[in-house]
Amino acid sequence: MSSPLVAPPTAGEVTELLRAVMDPELGDNIVDLGMAGEVTVSPDGLVAIAMKLTIKGCPLRVQIKNDIESRVLVHPGVTKVTIDWGEMTAEERSAVMTRARWNAKEQASDTQVPINARVLAIASGKGGVGKSSVTVNLAAAIAEQGNIVGVLDADIWGFSIPRMLNMPDRLEAQRVEGSDKPRIIPNERKVGTGLLKVVSTGMLVEDEGTALMWRGLMLTKAVEQFLNDVQWGELDYLLIDMPPGTGDVQMGLARMLPRTDLVIVTTPAVSAQKVAIRAADMARRSFLRVAGVIENMSTFTCDHGNTYELFGNGGGQALATEIGSPLLGNIPIEAAVAHGSDSGEPIVLSKVGAAAEAFAAIAQRIISETVSMQDMVGCSARNEEVVQVSVSQRR
Ligand code: ADP
Predict the structure, then answer these.
(1) Which end of the chain has fewer beta carbons closer than 10 Å to its terminal beta carbon, N or C?
(2) Which residue, judged by its Cα, is nearest atom 6 of ligand 1?
(3) pLDDT by residue (tens digit) across 294-317?
């Protein structure tokens, strides 16, 4: 093992670094939750950390491991991090759940997004990389298989979702029982055996040009309103088309829906990759998990079958490696993707061509990786009540 160039940190300094690692389900850092135990540091910079999970098979283990490594390796005196995994006793678990429940009550804002919905925010460092195209195609593919998928077009200055899904109707507000103010009712579209529930500023203003009038509106306020005032009803997934490159919306989301996973869209170009890293950095700072990277506009295959890398290659994989998240897939450039967006029929529904196949495969991966509520039993205080209900319903 090579010696570090600077002195290794003390155990206390490592513990301070670990305070930045959140258990997203428990809503607190692993030190205050009592999950991070003894820390030892050897003179050659090897850091060993004893970690106790609420249950050994906690589905968040890999994420927590990645977060610990990335936080601690930031110290230039650290050469390697090893983690010794243990499990809490029933008493420790009960103490941690009490604390987490208290935190959840203190921090959670009152969104209308059901607690069992998986929330994915589709983000990019800059505009024009295909973030909205990815959102609508994934939403359509996930819905087609019988899921109820909410789509929140948070790109309020550059909204394109209503056109891409051919859903131009104005949104209506309605009084609902149990609420003192009217709620916005999402517009719906059946897809396969499932349903899309869509809201966008594009459904509030008269035409795309009028969107300019929204410039004065605070972005975070608008997104907050969409989360709080929309009568989402039942949802299996919520896909949020994020405005490109803005940190405040991510921070707002992290506060309101800390379980949000980020999906970062980039192109193979190195320049796009650099700005995408900023989006990932922002996610880290707001403790959002990056579920993966999607490389869009990967290759172009002409009618003669020749394939060209118009925007270079490897940007998606390089970004994924750099931020320690999986590459969920590569989507080729196809005129049909743009035609699908313009006509309001997402290409993935046509099932024709490599781009449609790539979108479908990514959607499948997201569906199969979604941790079911039952699997979360004992691992999450936030979802505990939902789990109890769904488990009792299955009996
Ligand atoms: P963003 O939301 O990042 O601004 P869009 O999804 O609006 O990007 O895409 C920008 C433009 O590129 C749109 O005209 C869209 O139809 C087109 N586009 C996106 N992905 C592809 C692709 N894989 N092949 C061809 N055109 C694409």
Answers:
(1) C
(2) 130
(3) 999 998 888 888 888 887 778 889
> What single letter denotes the amino acid at residue 256?
M
Phi, psi values for residue 362, rounded to 5°: -65, -40
Are the beta carbons of 89 and 237 closer than 8 angstroms?
A: no
Q: What's the count of helices (H) and strands (E) in the chain, helices before strands?
A: 12, 16
If DSSP states are collapsed to H, E and C, what string results for 39-106?
Answer: EEECCCCEEEEEEEECCCCCCCHHHHHHHHHHHHCCCCCCCEEEEEEEECCHHHHHHHHHHHHHHHHH
| Any ligand 1 atom below 6 A from CB of 168 | no
Rounded Cα distance, 30 and 86, in Å: 13
For the chain, list the strands marked E by DSSP. 22-23, 28-29, 36-41, 46-53, 80-87, 118-123, 148-153, 172-174, 183-185, 187-191, 194-200, 237-241, 261-266, 289-301, 307-308, 327-333
Residues in the chain: 395
Please indicate whether residue 358, judged by its CB atom, sits closer than 6 Å to ligand 1. Answer: no
pTM, full prediction: 0.72
Residue 163 contacts residue 202 (beta carbons within 8 Å):
yes
Name the strand (E) or helix (H) holding 337.
helix 335-343
Q: What domains are defined for the chain?
A: 11-106 (3.30.300.130), 118-394 (3.40.50.300)
Q: Is the CB of 298 under 6 A from ligand 1?
A: no
Query: For residue 73, is pLDDT > 50?
Result: yes
Name which residue leads in pLDDT, 264 or 114. 264
Q: Which residue has the tokens 């959002």?
A: 288
Separation of 316 CA from ligand 1 center, angstroms? 16
Minimum-distance ligand 1 atom for the alpha carbon of 297: 23
As a whole number of angstroms, the distance between CA 187 and CA 171 comes to 7
CB 33 within 8 A of CB 93: no
Enter the tokens of residue 384.
């505990």
Q: What is the CA radius of gyration of the chain?
A: 22
Q: Using DSSP, state whether 186 is helix, strand or coil.
A: coil
